[in-house]
Amino acid sequence: MKSFVLNVALAAMAMSCAGSTASFAAWEPVRPVEFIVPAGTGGGADQMARTIQGIVTKHNLMKQPLVVINKAGGAGGEGFLDVKTSSGNPHKIIITLSNLFTTPLATGIPFNWKDLTPVAMLALDEFVLWVNAEKPFNTVKDYVDAAKKAPSGSFKMGGTGSKQEDQIITVGIEKAIDAKFTYIPYKGGGEVAVQLVGNHVDSTVNNPIEAVAQWRGGKLRPLCVFDAQPMAYDEPIAEGKAWKDIPTCKSQGLAMEYLMLRGIFMSPKATKDQVEYYVELFKKVRATPEWQDFMKSGAFNTTFLAGADYAKWIEAEEKRHEGLMKDAGFLAPGN
Amino acid sequence: MEELANLFHGFAVALQPYNIMLMIIGITLGVIIGVLPGLGGANGVAILLPLTFSMPPTSAIIMLSCIYWGALFGGAITSILFNIPGEPWSVATTFDGYPMAQQGKPGEALTAAFTSSFVGALFAVIMITLVAPLVAGFALRFGPAEKFAVYFLAFCSFVGLSKEPPFKTIAAMMMGFALAAVGLDSITGQLRLTFGVTELLNGFDFLIAVIGLFGIGEILLTMEEGLAFRGGNASINLRVVLQTWRELPTYWMTSLRSCLIGCWMGVTPAGATPASFMSYGIAKRLARRGNNFGKGEIEGVIAPETAAHAAGTSALLPMLSLGVPGSPTAAVLLGGLLIWGLQPGPMLFVEQKEFVWGLIASMYLGNLAGLIVVLTCVPLFAAILRVPFGIIAPLILVLCAIGAYSVHNSTFDVMLMLVFGVLGYLLKKCNYPLAPLVLAIVLGDKAEEAFRQSLLGSQGSLGVFFSNGLVSTIMALGLVALFWSAIQEGYSRLRMSMA
To answer: A5-9, A216-220, B291-295: lowest mean pLDDT where?
Structure first.
């Protein structure tokens, strides 16, 4: 009994020592961490955030809980402004998509990514050109020929949101092949894919995860991927074809490349220790089998960047978005 | 036949003790979530989703769908007792449910609401079981034009079939449309009517408006009338349940009609809100005692509740078979499916038989378990009305404030709720109906979006709304509903002149 008490006391001392050295060496959250999603429930960013929350809980990666909060108002502007105004609060992180660039440019809300502290890029989301499987377009060439032959504006492209990534890609395609589409914005990617199955639009640029079920069901056909190289996943999905077998658009004569950021930022004025804590956390998340399954199911590009590399990537991407959106006439007055 | 065998296999999965335990926990959590206005089914499921990641997918979906059922049942409780609808589709339940509670019949109203929800949901589950593959394809025919036609029908049937003066109805509806237009214009991607105010980026959320208009507005009215709830003499024993049950079968026609409206609206997928409003409007016209609707008629509770739940349940069908969520809660469940590694879509029924039929079996059982849980609590809920107003009113105010805050975690919304409360009080004093205003806030931006998507596709031609049999039929029905009174009058005049 005595030895038990002693052991407990020793263990407690050891633990408190360990605790104090740990808090001395590095920063750790002392309150629950808010994980802001600048998009609605059920969408791509939301799914990723909730997967991360599940992984963190299951593998005990954090001592404090991670709480997902959706702030979707104004195409995500609500979420960005919330984090921007939480200067010096290290218990707030945000997952971003391309609306990090497009929302301030298109709506003119007072926000720029430089207002936040970049943490890490988790992955990049791919875009694929899809058509209805009943249509006679088997290659990009068939598709481009048909789009060029159709009367101007009668070829319909469906996409998620307005003046966001899907419409930017559409404008890019129009420029590349010199044709005019009518772009029809919908609320969510799943809805867009179903509109294509129902032949209410002629093509879409859905993310893999949004359209894979319809591909496997034989309803949709992928034509090409808007990446510099084919996707990495070689497991057969439908008709013996894998993600890897989808050619790049560029190789098929459609010169447009686009990848969407899935990255993490935190509140302004975060210290180096605080950023380092989150970078390490997400490294651990990425090492779990659940994360790898998630990457596979959505055929993500798994590039990881942090620190200066990440900031450099964002800067280049911001310039590119500014150019693309300026060309398309999507900039808000005064921007 | 194969479906039946699959279903029994599903029952075997759902009836494992572990799953039954999850079912009861889910229902209880759901009722609590449903009673708190603003928290709602979608948020509740989203918050609890990560808890289920360590469970097998079938158990997880059983628990989540039970939370969903519980929330649906729970939403009716506050609608009837306090005139505060927790979800868009419970708004129509307040029209007759709340007057019933005030007349000392909260037990009857609650029993009717719970039982009708059960009947509606059961009808939809049976439909899913029998005709799932056939019905799923129907949703594919719905493009933007067809969706707009359905919303158009909902608005028209409300204006045309309402007993209120049509111009007051239209005025209230226009106010709702104006409020719905605030926020992001989803077609051009630009901000609209926000005047640079960050809080308005989100627009006016339906829940904030409803909690204010109905909840706070009602408290203000009651205060003016002398600090008394008129439900004080509510009987609080289980006999009420049995008595109401004996009465319910006489309304089988209303139930059946509401089931059909609900299933159709759920599959198309227009959703539960237009279904409940449309069902209420049609019942008001066709029921024998339709003139008494709005004054505490039990049929006025049966019609919207049955249709809403038939629609809510059948909305799961397009989600599973096509991957299109029919409601916000379905959207969260869809996210859950993806995380568990299941791909909703045409192949789900083929590749994940155990999961799909386990879910369908749990819909039968969860619904039944939910009914039993809430019915045994009816006396308890009804007893709440015996608490003196001086105590219950501050509690409701706090509940409303928590609800409004939890929608977007914003204190601005609580202020907004109070403003809506005053607005609701004034409108009621001037005899403007609140329901069309709420309907327009809920469906206004969706209708606008579908309308503009259709016109984009047709390059500006209105002919798109009469371009095929389906859309023309729905639009024609809408026009008939809109001018129903005029048509009826013309018909009776014609008969007079013939005679």
So the answer is: A5-9
* DSSP structure class, residue B89: G
Q: What is the mean pLDDT of each run of 10 residues along chain B (499 residues)?
A: 75 84 86 70 69 78 82 82 79 90 86 92 88 69 88 82 80 93 88 86 82 84 68 62 87 92 81 85 83 87 92 81 67 71 71 79 85 82 75 82 80 92 92 85 87 93 91 90 82 82
Residue owning tokens 């505060």 = B84
**Rounded-to-integer distance, Cα B302 and Cα B254, Å:** 8
**Kind and range of the H or E element at A181?**
strand A181-186
State the best of B39, B64, B182, B338 to mutate against chain A, taking most chain A CBs within 10 Å: B338
C-alpha angle with apex A59: A54 to A62, nearest 5 degrees? 85
Residue B56 contacts A where some CB pair is shorter than 8 Å: no
Provide the CA A323 distance to its chain's centre, in angstroms: 21
Could you give the C-alpha distances from B469 to A6, B141, B149, B475, in angstroms and in order?
84, 11, 12, 10
> What is the predicted pLDDT for the residue at B324?
66
Q: Is the ipTM of this complex over 0.90?
A: no
Q: Is B130 helix (H, G, I), strand (E, B) or coil?
A: helix
Residue B153 to residues B149, B474, B481, B482, Cα–Cα distance (Å): 6, 7, 8, 8
Query: Higher pLDDT residue, B323 or A287?
Result: A287
Could you check whether A33-125+260-328 and A128-257 share the same CATH topology?
A: yes
Confidence at residue A31, expressed as pLDDT on a 0 to 100 scale: 92
| C-alpha–C-alpha distance, residues B117 and B123, integer Å | 10
The single residue listed with the structure tokens 């490294």 is A283
The tokens of B478 are what? 């809408």
What is the per-residue pLDDT for A19? Answer: 42
- Scored b (16 or more CB within 10 A) or e, B249-278 reads eebeebbebbbbbbbbbbbbbbbbbbbbbb
Average per-residue pLDDT for chain A = 89
Bridge partner list, A123 = A262
Chain A contact for B54 (CB, 8 A cutoff): yes
Within 10 angstroms of residue A163's Cβ, the number of other Cβ atoms is 26
Place of tokens 């708190």: B36
> Which of B139, B328, B345 is facing A213, going by the closest CB pair?
B345
Confidence of residue A10 (pLDDT cuts 50, 70, 90): very low
A-chain CB neighbours of B347 within 8 Å are 213, 216-217
**pLDDT at residue B37, as a whole number:** 62
Q: In this structure, how many other beta carbons lie within 10 angstroms of the beta carbon of residue B407?
A: 21
Identity of the residue in A71, A161, A218 whose CB atom sits nearest the CB atom of B189: A161
Query: Domain-by-domain residue ranges, chain A?
Result: 33-125+260-328, 128-257
Q: Which two tokens stand for residue A211?
A: 């359209």
pLDDT in tens, B194-214: 888 888 888 888 778 888 888
8 Å CB contact between B215 and B82: yes
Query: How confident is the model over A187-200, as a mean pLDDT?
Result: 87
Domain A33-125+260-328 in this protein, CATH class: alpha beta
CB contact under 8 A, B339 and A50: yes
pLDDT tens string A117-150: 999 999 999 999 999 999 999 999 999 999 999 9
Cross-chain Cβ contact A194/B143 below 8 Å: no
CA angle B210, B211, B217 (to 5 degrees): 95
- A128-257: CATH topology: D-Maltodextrin-Binding Protein; domain 2 (3.40.190)
> What's the pLDDT tens digit per position in A47-62?
899 889 888 988 999 9
In angstroms, the first-to-last Cα distance of chain B is: 57
Instruction: Tell me the β-bridge partners of B397.
Output: none
d(CA B313, CA B50): 23
Where in chain B are the domains? 2-498
- Of B231, B230, B224, residue with least CA distance to B422: B224
